[in-house]
Amino acid sequence: MRLAIVGTGTVGSSVAQLAGDYGHTVTAMANVEAATIDSGGIDVEAALERQHEGERHLGEDDPEDALEADYDVLVEATPVTLGDAQPGFGHLERALQLDRHVVLANKGPMAERYGEVMDLAEQSAGEVRFEATVGGAIPVLSTIEDYGPETITAARGVLNGTANFILSRMASAGLGYEHVLAEAQDLGVAETDPSFDVEGTDAALKCVILANVLAEGDREYTLEDAAVEGIKDIPESALELAQEDGRTIRLIGEVAGGEIRVGPRLVPEHSELAVTGTTNIVQLETENAGRLNLSGRGAGGPETATAMLADVGRLPPL
């Protein structure tokens, strides 16, 4: 497949670097400042080296031209935006209008404009796939697809590595939130502004996407439909009391009974949900196969890129 990659941060750059290993050719790469386009295949390493000097150095082409280039699959890896989900939604819309496939890491379009995306895909020869939007490298959506959404009665799990690192570190070291947050920032586990993670927004977006997939078009969910509580106000004493009772606290997202809830929950200390560090886990309750536990790395450049390239491999030729 020929790939056009829009968004060349950690994830997009990793897709570009790994694409050749999967037998694909990168024909366009674009960031907000510039693009490089070559229908015969671009020199990925040279382009990324130029970008290292500054985003405008990626190439001499206009970023908008990347959407019109010769490609089979648009890899959309721009940052998540809420509300209108732009510019990611616009990128997706243009690719589908051109009858190209779209593979997403950007959660915005699927969490905020799911119905519109599905309508656009229905009118296009291209398909939309978005495994990487839920759980990074963990094959959550493909498992639901294989089993059939109608057979999944509920989904829950730990869906944000930053929040999980903070909570598990607080519990294991007996440290307070602010101390552990600073540690996480020093390690690069938490952003300078960690609000998207610690307030539960990131986990909620993933749960909204799960809810939309499980609803199979019967209802459309957005972030407004989720009840969300973060971890900032959890005192060190709460974790100590939980440990005395053989339990711990995790930020749990759940989709069940048409409702979406994200917030701190008590879980048994040695249960599947008590994953540590930046590990994620998703539990799927099924009608016929019991509970499925899917865990692994929920973020990271190569990890998320692996999920996106797996999606590319699932697409039919155009």
Automatic annotation (TrEMBL):
UniProt-annotated catalytic positions: 206 (proton donor)
Protein name (Swiss-Prot/TrEMBL): Homoserine dehydrogenase
MF term (GO), any: homoserine dehydrogenase activity
Matches recorded under InterPro entries: Asp/hSer_DH_NAD-bd, HDH_cat, HDH_CS, HDH_short, NAD(P)-bd_dom_sf
Pathway terms, separated by semicolons: Amino-acid biosynthesis; L-methionine biosynthesis via de novo pathway; L-homoserine from L-aspartate: step 3/3; Amino-acid biosynthesis; L-threonine biosynthesis; L-threonine from L-aspartate: step 3/5
Any one of the GO BP annotations: methionine biosynthetic process
Positions contributing to NADPH binding: 107
Domain of life: Archaea
Organism: Halapricum hydrolyticum
Binding site for NADP(+): 7-12
Alphabetically ordered keywords of this record: Amino-acid biosynthesis, Methionine biosynthesis, NADP, Oxidoreductase, Threonine biosynthesis
Domain Aspartate/homoserine dehydrogenase NAD-binding: 7-131
Residues annotated to bind L-homoserine: 191
Domain Homoserine dehydrogenase catalytic: 139-312
